[in-house]
Amino acid sequence: MGLKIGMDLGLLIGLFSIFIYVFAKNVITAQYKVYLLFHFFMMIWPIGQVGVHTTDRPHLQIIYITLSFVGLSMLGFGWLLFTKYLAHGAYYKPSRNVVLSFLAPSLLLSVAMIWNPANLFVAPVNGDYGEREYGPVFWCMSLLLVAYFQYSARLLWHKARIQTEQAERARLKNALLGLVVMVALPLLDLLVNVLLDPWLPVIPGITSLGILASDIFFLYSLQKHRSFDLVKIAQQDVVDTLSVGIIVLDEQEFVIEINRNVCPKLNIVLGKRLEMEALLAAHLLDPSTEEAFMRLYRSQSGERAHTELVIKHDPKQYWSLHAAPIIIGSKLLGKVITLQDITELKSHVLKSQEQNTSLQERNRALIYMQDELFQANRKLEQMAITDSLTGCFNRRFLMQQLEHEVLTNLRYKIPFAVFLFDIDMFKLVNDTYGHVVGDEVIRRTAEAVKGALRRTDILARYGGEEFAVYLPHTDQEQAERLAQRIREVVESNVMPTGRGRAPISVTISMGTHVVERQTDLQIDDVKSYLEELFYNIDSALYRAKDNGRNRVVNY
Predict the structure, then answer these.
(1) DSSP strand pairing (458-463 vs 552-554)
(2) How would DSSP label each residue in 41-108?
(3) N or C: which end of the chain has fewer CB within 10 A?
(4) How far apart, in whole angstroms, are the C-alpha atoms of residue 396 and residue 468?
(5) Which DSSP string corresponds to 324-338?
(6) 434: helix, coil or strand?
(7) Looking at residue 27, what is its pLDDT?
(8) Is the pLDDT of residue 418 over 80?
């Protein structure tokens, strides 16, 4: 018994120390807030376990036992929410309904354990809870934790598999390992100390050890791979130095970023939805401009919407508001709203018309600054390295990567290969099923090819239905095997075409080129070399099409 109390007390001290460490050493971002909630639920278990073994009064023992298992039940909700934040990133904002759907099962079972009707949760043995029997509510709680674990583990595993960033993949795998440890040891405790209790001696502290070990894994995941938090903090610091107020909205108009120069009297809160109509109703300077502003604000044409606000406190404040959509491809991802304090400008206008020319110049300067910000934003969007339809790298990124890789490969005589393939008879797919199905065929084909490639290979959308693959450290034999595997995977990939229509599959024709036995070749112009390389591969691709399609031809 003393060993059991010592282990649980040690767990409590360890968890509390980690709790204090996280507060003292880290900037508390959204992920850390959810982690601390998760950590709090962990700490409930040892508190209850220590309590139940320090008293022989049954009415106190049942309180401590219930506290422990309520904490364990809520721990399932905590780790599921924490998993969502790890999988979806720092900008993940779950809705209230989503949080309630996660919380409801744990909450209902917690109520049932506290109520314990007819001892359906736990019953004493010989009037004492030091030895006890568990009922259906306990087993329901165990099954719920297993269900939480399965959902969380599948989510982390899926996100780790599709993640291209090495640091983020390691972050997810560490969290997954912590989750496995958290579940494995309590299940071992359940097997040894509950199911096999009549035949085996009690082994104390298994669940406590699992909780502490998993918490170390989770904390390591946050501490070791927290570059995204650091980037966010650095970005926030830069944004806060600007002289204008900046508000960033997601596609549902929730505030995901706000700097310190946004006027607090506008009651704009991070994480909440920005109700533009309510904001205009309270502060619009000229009500007759509301309809025109809202029409531009709601459109996806890419045009900026502009209006002016007034805060009717003493003294009055005037703000110039610009709203610009963030559009990549044809998809609206959110909006950037900038607020410029123009109180001084307005005061000059109202005081003297003689200063009108000067004020117009300043206003034009303001508009010019907004236009520069907008143009800079557009340039940043165009520099994105991924294709919006398929999620693959785009052609620009591929060529930049090859310019560096090819020189290195030739210098150190490292074999590599480049594939170029496109979808056979794709125009017929578009003509028969429409462009929506055509886009879906392109997207699903890219997904199938990704699954057939190695982790180090680079898949890029080269243009239209045409794709290119760069395979580093690949000789002729490996390239031929991978090319045939890609062709077979695409051919066996069956895709739906819509309600009432049979699914289809497509084939690809591929040209390949393997640079394996280099001589001491000196390249003066790597771009010219790549142009010649892709010309050769393109020739092989056309031979594949001329020879009947659905085949691989090596240059």
Answers:
(1) unpaired
(2) HHHHHHHHHHHHTS---HHHHHHHHHHHHHHHHHHHHHHHHHHHHHHH-TT----HHHHHHHHHHHHH
(3) N
(4) 12
(5) EEEEETTEEEEEEEE
(6) coil
(7) 52
(8) yes
Cα–Cα distances in angstroms (integers) from residue 88 to residues 30, 94, 151, 160, 172, in the given order: 12, 10, 14, 11, 10
Q: By mean pLDDT, which of 34-43, 102-111, 145-154 is the weakest? A: 34-43
**Six-digit token pair at 155?**
């989510």
pLDDT in tens, 485-506: 999 999 999 998 887 888 999 9
Separation of alpha carbons 511 and 480, rounded Å: 11
Can you read off the two tokens belonging to residue 479?
Answer: 């390239």
| Contacts by residues 345-351 (CB-CB < 8 Å, ≥ 24 positions apart) | 345/318, 346/318
How far apart CA 36 and CA 15 sit, in angstroms, is 11
Q: How far is CA 438 from the centre of its chain?
A: 27
436 with 389: CB under 8 angstroms?
Answer: no
3-state class percentages of the chain: helix first, strand second, coil last, to nearest 5? 60, 15, 25
Write down the number of H helices and E strands in the chain. Answer: 17, 13
Q: Are the C-beta atoms of residues 38 and 15 closer than 8 Å to each other?
A: no
pLDDT in tens, 447-458: 999 999 999 999
What is the H or E stretch that residue 3 is in?
helix 2-25
Name the E strands within 244-381. 245-250, 255-258, 305-311, 317-328, 331-341
Q: Which residues of 152-181 are buried (b: 16+ CB within 10 A; e: fewer)?
A: bbebbeebbeebeeeebbebbbbbbbbbbb
As a residue count, the chain comes to 555
CA atoms within 13 A on the CB side of 265: 15
Residue of 320, 319, 303 whose CA lies nearest to 311: 319
Give the tens place of pLDDT for each residue, 291-307. Answer: 888 988 888 777 888 99
